[in-house]
Design brief:
The structure holds two protein chains of two kinds. Chain A is an alpha+beta fold. Helix content of chain A is about 30%, strand content about 25%. Chain A has an eight-stranded antiparallel beta sheet with strand order 14-11-13-12-16-17-15-18. A five-stranded antiparallel beta sheet of chain A has the order 4-5-9-7-8. In chain A, helix 7 runs antiparallel to helix 12. The two termini of chain A are about 35 Å apart. By secondary structure, chain B is of the alpha+beta class. In chain B, the strands form four sheets. In chain B, strands 12, 13, 14, 15, 16, 17, 18 and 19 form an eight-stranded antiparallel beta sheet that branches. A five-stranded antiparallel beta sheet of chain B has the order 5-6-10-8-9. The chains are: A alpha+beta, B alpha+beta.
Chain lengths: ~450, ~475
Amino acid sequence: MDTPIDRFRSFLPLEELRTVREQKEVAEVLAQAAGASQAVYPIGGGTHLSAGGRPTRPGVGLVLTEVNRLVDYPHRDLTVTVEAGMTVRQLQEILARENQWLPVSTADPERTTIGGLLSTAWPGPRDACYGSVGEFLLGCRAVDGRGQMFTCGAKVVKNAAGYNLHRLLAGSYGSLAVITEVTLMVRPRPEASALYAVALPTWEKADEALRTLGPRAVEAAAAQLLAGRYWADVNEVLRSVAATPPVGWLVLALEGSQPHVDGLAAEVLQPLATAGLAPVAITAEEHKQELWRLIEGFSGENPPGRPQEAAGSDEGWLLHLGHLLPEFIAKGIGELLSHPAAVAAQVHAGSGAVWVWTHCKQSDWQQVTNELRSRFCAGFRPTVIVRRPPGCDIPPGKLWNAEPVSGHEKFGLPGTYEIMRRIKAEFDPHGVLNPGRLAWE
Amino acid sequence: MWRVFSRETRVLRERKKQAEAFARIVGWENVLWHPAELVVYDCDGYTVERRPPQLVVFPASESEVCHLVKTANALGLKLLPRGAGTGLAGGATPRDGEVIVSLTRMNRIHKIDIVNRYAEVDPGVLNTQLARALEGTGLHYAPDPSSQTASTLGGNAATNAGGPHTLKYGVTLNHVLAVNLVTTSGDVITVQSPHGNGQLDLLSVVIGSEGTLGIITRLWLRLTPNPRSFRTFRAVFDTPEAACEAISDIIGAGILPAAMELMDRGILDAVEEAFHFGFPPDAGAVVVIELDGFPAAVAQEAEKVLELCRKWGAREILEARSEEERQQLWKCRKMAVAAVGRLSPSYCIQDGVVPRTRLPQIIREIQEISRRHGVPVVNVAHAGDGNIHPIFLFDERNCAQVQRVLAAGQEILRRCIALGGSITAEHGVGLEKLHLMEAQFAEPDLEAMRRLRRAFDPGGTLAPGKLIPTRD
């Protein structure tokens, strides 16, 4: 049976694992590592280790799951402070006692830690309506690459004192500092919810559905375009919505007070029906949960129902992330999925975030990736690869699409990367934190 | 005497020579260099400290800004970006002879994309200019600081401006998709939130950086669907404390109104004199509560909100009966600070924030601090966020009174920190609160901020001496 270090070793060159229990221990480990110029790989639930480049510098795996205390929960202020190793599920359970929640979704809430969730800051299905995970972060405590602990932000919902350093740490993949404690803004739980699925027979109809939805895509708790055979293969509810497999489904989640849900449903459903796209209400609780599990799990390490790769296979799964402007979503996804290696896509229609799983021989990844990117040119931001197979050595620059692509020269300009490098040098002068994961290092 | 005269002439001559270098980029008509002209730019909305700039330049394009930065670097001059100068913390007040880069001529709305829900604008576009341009589209730009008729969108971004509707819709940072930034090397970079794509979120630190990390030359702003309906109430309480308790209970009950604004007796007097709105003359405080959304949803929320107001002794709750009345009520609130001019020759508005449940306590303490220092205070507050704005009334010609005002303000902000809050919620640090940063943050925290600043501006060219206290 695989031990944790075996599992992590398939992605990271670990010499040892250090499980810390106190925040100050994080500082001690990092101070020692800085002195010895030893690489440190922060690990939360280990759910996002396949994201980014494959590091080669041997180092210490710093496991934070035991740094997981509830620090303060003044629930009437709608804020909570917890240590970063607490899992998303644990946090949601604590918040549920006061009828509150953190309205973010993640693939594997039992394993994903709050610190890990913030460090990657991946787009989620509820982002357009409630805000991205980083937007709920009010402040944090972190330890930089010297082993120096610092705090940033505040514990109140509005603060303009100093830089939003805490927001810089969100999405930085632990490359600047290790987050050890966070203060989050939380929300009252919605009193009602409803879920609808619309079968999209053609890409033209998909486009029409999204245009009909218009700005309501950001008012719905989630508006998801699910495209590709995968969805029908793994979900009976979606199969029941359309007798013959369509090009995709539009799944709408409505949340809020009952009158809000009713009002939004009335505005959304009738125009869709008029356009010949009959929305089907998914009412059974188990069906709702199953569909949510799929939606939240799609960008996870092992999406529900996705075939596992046989040991020794020369094929592998790559997860690509891109962004499309709303008006290009249907056309863009249609083009992406016409690629033979593209198996399934999920689009958060409100924010335009696009996830695509491709499956191909590991030796073909570069060709597949280039072809995918060339089909994305009408979009807002080109795709990057956020999950790679364990043994796949795609250089970080290729993974993160750091080289300018025709039509997207703006992104990854040398000036931007230069500033990122200077920030890294200031916060992690010995280059010990997560080396080899990101393109701009 | 001769020696002084001669030195002044030399200084002036030197300044004109510097102005000439900038005039080659923007034209003489867009450079101010004479001391008599510079006086206008010696402070922003924080009038307690005044220092003239070395020069003021008015670029009209991004490329002109780039050239200005390179020229300043060549001449060894420091730069201070400025929007409309409506800031209330001295962020646009020169500190040591900087060249002000006023962005007000860059005022074009380049694109409003309804389908994709964003606007592309210059930094000098006024907040209300965009609001007017969006009328009838079904979309709006959510941040609405009280200064919105005068403040620029670039300035709003630089200070991460808030406003009454922050409570539900968030601050400026939540509504900026990307910006173009002219760096201290004079190059343009585009920064946007990475959303997991492996880059650093430079946008989040640029917003609210008060011009210290670069000069914002273009913004892509998120547009939000207009609410279906509004219901706007004014609830009259006998005391500000009772009003705060009601506000705290509303948030605690899980209701998130679009806005919840507090005005105390003192400010009501000023507002009433200016607008004759009909607030009861003996009201201790008025809370303006706005709910928005689907009519049935708003009705459900309104019922709960009114019940909680009554629980805390609201003796009169009136609802705006028309859009005109609603707008009038908001005008009262947003012009409240300006109306204070009727009460006193000078006033100084503070900005602090406490956890929402501590609002009743800080309001009590403000009254006590005001009494102790012998300076009258009136209060407005974005109460739903715990964001207080005590306004001290004084006469700036009376030096002793000015000192008492400053001392009282500092004491309030220190109490905000002690109660778990912050020295500023939306005005920023600027010059005014520089020394209080050390009260809120420990040295390692400030050092982390300095490191970030060094990464963007190694030479300390932009807005020197602002936002973070220097180590010396």
